[in-house]
Amino acid sequence: MNCTKRFLALFGLLALAACSMPSGSASKVSAGADPEIEAILRRMTVREKIGQMTQLNLDVVCEGEVYNLVEPHHIDSAKLHKAIVDYHVGSILNCGGHAYPREQWLQIIGTIQRFAVTKTTHKIPVLYGIDAIHGANYVMGSTLFPQPLGQAAAFDRALVERGAEITAYETRAVGIPWNFSPVLDVARNPLWSRVFETYGEEPLVCAELGAAAIRGYQDNSDSSRVAACMKHFLGYSAARTGKDRTPAYIPNNVLREIYLPSFVKAIENRALTVMINSGEINGQPVHASKEILTDLLRNELRFEGIAVTDWEDIIKLQLNHRVAATLKEATYMAISAGIDMCMVPNDYNFSDLLYELVQEGRITEQRLNESVRRILMVKKKMGLFNDDLVPSIQEYPLFGSATFTKTAQEAAEKSITLLENRKATLPLNINQRVFVTGPAANSMVMLNGAWTRTWQGVDPQWDNAAMNTIQEAMAKLSSNVTFMEGCGISEWKDASAALSMAQSADVIVACMGEWPSTEKPGDIDDLNLEAAQISYVEELLKLGKPVVLVLVENRPRLVNTIADRCAAVIMAYQPGDFGGDALANILYGKVCPSGRLPLTYPRFNHSLLTYDHKYTETLDQKFGNNAYLPQWTFGHGLTYANVQYSNLKITPGINQQGDYYEVSVDVTNPSNYTVHESTLLFVRDLYATTTPHARKLKAFVKNTLAPQSKITVYMKIDRGDLKFVDYHGNHVWEGGEFEFMIENLKQNITIP
Ligand code: BGC
């Protein structure tokens, strides 16, 4: 990393000062410590160190009240002075409630950084953080991708990495160097309001795609890299009720087998920061858990970056979790557990209380140093000590460019998943009269989901008017498209008029789903799709025309009463700004669908099992009880191409790492479509001393098949990949018989 003139000048002064310090202080510096950072650290006061550990909401330094800022938003210099100069605050986050154009962001970030580098003793820039979940979603005009769940459906590491690279570029274009993404939580409970932010239910997919996102965010040049943030360590998605931030009960072996691998992989891929789970596991809030934050994260996983709390989570140790009677005790708990930075976010209590704790000797300055060292290191790695802290508007010429939007559309097209296609209803013919209806048919808000220009993403005033909704995109491809909404999310809207319009159509495309939401506002009691939508589709079905059901939703809402009677069903997830065009291309056969479900689509409210359930949860042969009987299983996805698999082979080999198995299979595309085929390898461990899973995904690859082509796909797995986590939480190897499965092909192998 380049050291700039400003930083060198600063370091020069500090180095001189360091020479006059007692020699003992220098010897305390750990091996591998960065001398420049150590030099700053030695000069910092306790107050300054605590400032670095403090993260404030942008609202706190803007004109107006927190959550009620004066429009247009402006920095309030007096408030900023208090934060940066009086409290030495080292980090700011968020967007004041909504997205800004680039110019406004540059003004905001520029003002903050100018204050930090001109008015403070050590001239340490602020580490600004934001949630850029599916593109730089808080910057107007940025490229919006499908939400992560949709991206996962493409099973395409390179695509996720490229999307993250573009997001990093467009985030850095406004001077923001820290992205609170990716979400590495594993979506095991479909009720959870943040399922759409995950890469689905399988730990391997979450780990692989999470790592791809981290590489895309971080492995760029200084000017287009952002620090990734692994979220939310650990077990956040496992809430028993499925409601956000409610208790999880996770046995150690399940924690290690299901929830940990994505974080392990992210750390291997050098993720620079982590955000902590706001919830509690087995009665212990994670923010107060030394076992999770220090023993596991630091000592076992060797994570060296910043651990930041989630929103108000130290406050919640007192007010919600009730493990601390006072905020001061809560602060003590979180810092002792291993927190580096507190997302306070709206006051200075954390700073004041932590200062008191240090004065009282309960928290040592040494402890502060550990955290501040990590924080300064991330700032340095992000190039914040360089001169060009805030770019000019002329820089980043590719922002929002056609090159970027092409990738977003490609991602949407590769994610959309065809679940049913009876009697080859799809693709449609442009001469067919198509009636498009439903709450998602003409809504950009629904295509984009939460974290789109605002937190919940539900205000259409932020829509990009240049983008096409589903019905607009379809009407661009065919002049035989008519539209009427007919039904909202939870009530019919002029349904009789819509039904009579539907009567004169050849095909009905019913675009149903869920109003965007995330976190607490997205809590639900019932996974069923809203009754009004179900009954509306029932009415459409009564017309006797083929109904194509398009689902645009945060999580898989149950459709068991209608799905079997619809001629075709498509899962669109929340495909982003280009979702309308992508869907239209798929509906009209300009693009062959290729997405596969990254999670189980359940059929029943009380049977929410994942695909990798235990053998005892398979359908009972004798009594026929429902166990795992989903609407559609993990990995399911149809194409228009009739892709064929044949010739599955397993070839054992040995290399320096030990035994491995090369699995090959022939894939044929007999059609005239180009197909982006995801090949999934499942393995079934027939017997093991801890009950094995009925099957487990062990590898996946993505290939493009030209029309009328055949390829051989190779995958390699190590013997270690066939280990399992035993009852005691250890990864163990047991030889025996394994069944390898790709699509309809199976082959057994006995491994001693
Ligand atoms: C969410 C985090 C997010 C943070 C900052 C929290 O409420 O849980 O995922 O990064 O807010 O916006």
Can you identify the CATH class of the largest domain?
Alpha Beta
Looking at the structure, what is the overall shape? Answer: globular
Number of E-state strands: 27
How many domains in all?
3
Largest sheet: 6 strands, mixed
Termini separation (Å)? 49 Å
The side-by-side strand order for the widest beta sheet comes to 13-18-17-16-14-15
Question: Roughly how many Å is the radius of gyration?
Answer: 27 Å
| Sheet/helix structural class | alpha/beta
Could you name the CATH homologous superfamily of the largest domain? Glycoside hydrolase, family 3, N-terminal domain
Walk me through what this model shows:
- With 752 residues, the chain is α/β, with parallel strands linked by helices.
- The protein has 3 domains: 3-21 and 39-386, TIM Barrel; 409-617, Rossmann fold (3-Layer(aba) Sandwich); 644-751, Immunoglobulins (Immunoglobulin-like), CATH 2.60.40.
- The protein has 22 helices and 27 strands.
- The strands form 8 sheets. It has a 6-stranded mixed β-sheet, sandwiched between helices. It has a 5-stranded parallel β-sheet with strand order 6-5-4-1-12. A 4-stranded antiparallel β-sheet has the order 22-21-26-27, with no helix packed on it.
- A hairpin with a 2-residue loop joins strand 19 and strand 20.
- The model is unreliable at 1-29 (pLDDT under 50).
- The chain binds beta-D-glucopyranose.
- Beta-D-glucopyranose binds at residues 93-94, 131, 180, 231, 275, 310-311, 519.
